[in-house]
Sequence to fold (358 residues):
Amino acid sequence: MTTDALRADLLAAIDSATTLEALEALRVTALGKSGSVTLFMKSLGGMDAEARLLIAPVFQALREAVATAIEAKKTALEAAALAARLASEQIDLSLPAAQSPRGSVHPISQVMDELSEIFADLGFAVAEGPEIEDDWHNFTALNIPPEHPARAMHDTFYVRREDGEGERMVLRTHTSPVQIRTMMGQKPPIRIIAPGRVYRSDSDATHTPMFHQIEGMVIDRGIHLGHLKWTLETFLKAFFERDDIQLRLRPSYFPFTEPSVEVDVGYSIVNGSRVIGGADGWMEVLGSGMVHPRVIANCGLDPAEWQGFAFGTGVDRLAMLKYGMDDLRAFFDADFRWQRHYGFSALDVPTLSGGVGA
Ligand code: PHE
Fold:
């Protein structure tokens, strides 16, 4: 084949290549080690000097032309590939959200967000602590020394330590150890809530081994039961979105509060089912009290100067009461149909101005 014919063939083939792979294959057939153009170049070695002087520029021009054509085609194909990718990855921002794949926010997450919103509005920060807790924070510092009967009430999960030394670890049985961690970690005045998972070895229709609590605590000067009552009333009204919420405070006992107060909320019977509000009957919703002076002292604060109140309640139970679910276990079954029915839209962000459960 003449160089002209080869050149015409190759340029035509390059021009009609539609993919980068096809183009690369062409490059190898032409310019590769035993490619057609390379063979021409190699044949120069067998020529005498005069002929070579004459022919070499022709071959070099051929190689040059083919290489340039391949390079140009490559750039064009790459640009086309990028344009196609950009077109396919485009997001249509005007697409209605209802058409996108649907997931839902679990009622517990939703209620946690509602609670954080309500308490943020009252000036409470969110505090956290570990779920694997040491015995001291979960019990002793909260005025529950070893052998205290309250320990038996907690059905604790114990965690074996690999090193077999040091303090015994437990899965925290309540969110109250966050009271201790917060008082030891920052200076009063303190206003915090601590939502999170807690664990007890208990399982039936109304108990699951893991459940959720939210703790609240205020430490300041001159804090008294009136502050506690106002805070709980304000919180429960905002949470249940009703002004006719009635509270009943009953004397109770927790080792870490003195006095201790159990709080019932009134319900009325509407069409045969319980609805929060009114006072046809009472349901216990939370435990609370004034933080025990010994607990304050355990955290290195002077109880003569600092007082406070604390409360704790079950988030799962609050969710059930507010959204009318009756089996606690369904919360953790991950049943898609249940989640679709009770779940919340991701766009349903709780805000006080919009109504927390809007
Ligand atoms: N920690 C208690 C419980 O789990 C609740 C509580 C918290 C009571 C704070 C009083 C004060 O039952």
